[in-house]
Amino acid sequence: MILLHNICREPFKTQKNNMKKHLLTIASVAMIAGVVSFSSCKKDDTSAPTISIPGGNTQQISLNSTWNTPAATASDDVDGDVSSTITIGGDAVDEDIAGVYIITYTVSDAAGNTATETLEVTVANDAAFLAGTYQADDTCQQSWVSPYSMTWTASNTVNNKITMANLSNFGSSINIIANRSGQSLTFPTPQTIGTLGSFNSGNSTFTNTGNSVNGTMTWQWTDAASNTEVCTTTYSK
After folding, report:
1. What's the pTM?
2. Hey, is 94 helix, strand or coil?
3. Both ends of the chain: CA-CA distance in Å?
4. What's the pLDDT band for 68 if we cut at 50, 70, 90?
5. Which of 116, 177, 180, 195 has the most other CB atoms within 10 Å of its CB?
6. d(Cα 117, Cα 51) in Å, to the nearest integer?
7. DSSP per residue, 149-175
8. Rounded to whole angstroms, how far apart are CA atoms 229 and 107?
9. DSSP label at 128?
């Protein structure tokens, strides 16, 4: 009976040990699967930060005014506020030279995703809308000038300054300087009209719709023989 009893219990121990091993194996597999499952739920950071430029990506300032590069901000969906790591490059804006300047803002997050935004800054002469080719007609006290065309150019370095070429058909190489203030033009005097004489005084008013301009100018000049006359010029473009 004792022998039989021992024989009957031995398979039970073996079975019990095997069951424990089986349960441990299942538990280990479950733990590993849990880790693998947990790891697979973590997404890679593939999104670049977002850069915001105060005032927008296109801005314009007047020639000879003061320019301060806007301090942009940047945010990232993982790293949060990354504004302090923004680097600024591109053109250095020269407020005293008319033109278009491109500024770049670049930032990266911890995962290496990089974002870049550009700011286009236009430095413009406020009188630039006056530039162009005009049809003109003069009425003078003594001389008569047939209708003609003249070309106005906006200065690239002095705001509201324009140059009139071929006033009164004096020739395309004869330039008269004018300064715009609102809807009026004033003229520094005297100005030399080549070998023809001098431009002594003048004033002009105009109206405009966009770049379309209509105006009248009254001016006085003295020729090389010291004859002086007053002319009225109507002009349009």
Report:
1. 0.78
2. coil
3. 128
4. very high
5. 180
6. 7
7. EEEEEE-SSSTTEEEEESGGGS-TT-E
8. 66
9. G
pLDDT-based confidence at 35, cuts 50/70/90?
Answer: very low
Measured CA distances, 13 to 6, 16, 21 (Å): 11, 5, 12
Residue bearing tokens 């330039």:
175
Residues 6 or more apart whose CB falls under 8 angstroms from that of 157 comprise 63, 96, 97, 98
Q: CB count, 10 Å around CB of 66? A: 7
Percent of the chain past pLDDT 90, that is, above it, reads: 79
Answer whether 76's CB lies under 8 Å from 82's CB.
yes
pLDDT above 70 covers a percentage of the chain that reads: 82
Nearest to 184 by CA among 149, 159, 212, 216: 216
Q: What average pLDDT does the segment 116-124 reach?
A: 98
C-alpha–C-alpha distance, residues 174 and 144, integer Å: 18
The DSSP line for 28-76 is HHHHHHHHHHHHHTSPP--PPPEEE-TT-SEEEEETTS-------EEEE
